[in-house]
Amino acid sequence: MKIAYLVNTYPRPSHTFIRREIRALERQGFDIHRFAMRSDRRNLSDPDDKAEDQRTEHVLEQGEAGLFLGALACALRHPLRIVQAIGVAWRQGGRARLRLKHLVYVAEAAYIARRCRALGVQHLHAHFGTNSATVADLQHILGGPRWSFTTHGPEEFDAPVALSLGEKAAAASFTVAVSSFGRSQLCRWAPVDVWPRLKVVHCGIEPERFPEPEPAEPGKRLVAIGRFSEQKGFPILIEALAIAARKEPDLRLTLVGDGELRGEIEALIERYTLRRHVTLTGWLPEEQVLAELAAANALVLPSFAEGLPMVVMEAMAAGRPVIATSIAGIPELVTPSVGWLVPAGDAATLAEAMETFARTPDDTRAAMGQAARKRVMERHDVNHEAARLGELIRAAQG
C-alpha cells in the first residue's frame, strides 16, 4: 500500500521517533513517500537523519512561484474545491495575519494533492496537529487521499482552539494520540461522535537498538536530554541540583542538548558554583545519546509540559530508572517500581528525589532498571505500535 507522511520540518534531531515509525511501517510492507514543508539539514549531524533528509520531498523548495502556479492550475480545474478549501483555511485562520498564512497552506495543499495523485498515494498521515494537519485536511478537500494525524503535545494542547484541533479530528479518518492523557485532551475539543475515531498509538523504540544492558557503574550520575526550552524545565533542574549537592556532593549531571535557554542555564551553573557537577555536551548523534544513557545511573526529566517523551522510553530500554515530573502521559509509563515522580516546577521536591536516588543501593537501582526495561519493551515496541497504526490506515480505506 502506498502512503505518504507529512511533517512541517523533517527530519529534525528531536524527531527520530517519526523516522523509526516510518521504517517500522516499511518493514511491514508499506511503500512510504516523505513530505515536509522544509528541511532542518543545517542542524543535522546524525548520519541516519542526513540520509532521511535525502529521501524527503521538501515542498517549499519548489519556490513561491511554483506553488502559486500549481494552486492556480488547481483552481482552474476544480473551482468548487478551491473555494471550499479557501473557506476552511479562512475559518481556521481566525485572525487576519493567520488567515493570510492559511491561504499559503492552500497552495501547499494543492501541491501535496497533485503529487499524491501522481505517486498513487492512498493515504496521507501527518505528524502534529499544527500546520501539517491543516495542509493534510486541505489537500483532501482538493482531491488528495484520505488522511489522519498524530498529536503529541504539548503544543497542540496549549492552543487547541487556535489550531482548530476538534475540527481537524472531525475531518480526519482517524486521529492518534501517543498517550491516554493525549486522547483525553482530544476528547475535550472533538465532538462526542468523533471519540471512537480517537486512537492511542504509542511512539516506539527499536528493541534491536537496545540489547541487554551492562550494569551501570556504581555512582551518582544523572543524565538529562532535550532542547533547552522553557517547557523542559532545565533551570529548575540546576536549582534542584544545587540543593541536592549540599547533601550529596558526589552527584553529577550531564545535560545533552541545546537551545534558546543555554545562556541562562550556563549562568545558573556559574551562580550556584556547579561547574564540577554539570557537563554540557550540546546535541549528540543518536548513538552517542545511547552511550550517555548507558554511562548514567538514571535519567532525570524536569519538564513542565510534555507529550510522552521518547527519552524516557530510551532510558528505560537501557535499563535505567527515571526521575520525572508527574505530567501528561509520563505517569502512564513511569511507575514507582521504575523511578520517582515529582510535581512539576518544584525544585525542592525534585532535589529530594535526586537525594533519594543517590542514597538508593546499587542493587535496588539495578532492579528498578530491569523493571523499567521490561515495562517499556512490553508497551513501546515500535514494530507492535506501527502495526496498530498500519491497521488503522488500512481500515480507513473502507
Explain how this protein is built.
Keywords: Glycosyltransferase, Transferase. This protein is α/β, with parallel strands linked by helices and 398 residues long. The protein has 2 domains: 2-204 and 381-396, Rossmann fold; 211-379, 3-Layer(aba) Sandwich (Rossmann fold). It has helices spanning 16-27, 47-55, 63-77, 79-93, 96-119, 131-141, 155-158, 165-171, 180-189, 234-247, 262-271, 286-295, 310-317, 330-333, 347-359, 362-379, 382-396, and strands at 2-9, 31-38, 56-58, 123-127, 146-151, 174-177, 198-200, 221-225, 252-256, 278-282, 298-301, 322-325, 339-342. Strands 3-2-1-4-5-6-7 form a 7-stranded parallel beta sheet, sandwiched between helices. Strands 10-9-8-11-12-13 form a 6-stranded parallel beta sheet, with helices on both faces. Helix 3 (63-77) packs across helix 4 (79-93), helix 4 (79-93) packs across helix 5 and helix 4 (79-93) packs antiparallel against helix 6. The protein is elongated, with a radius of gyration of 22 Å.
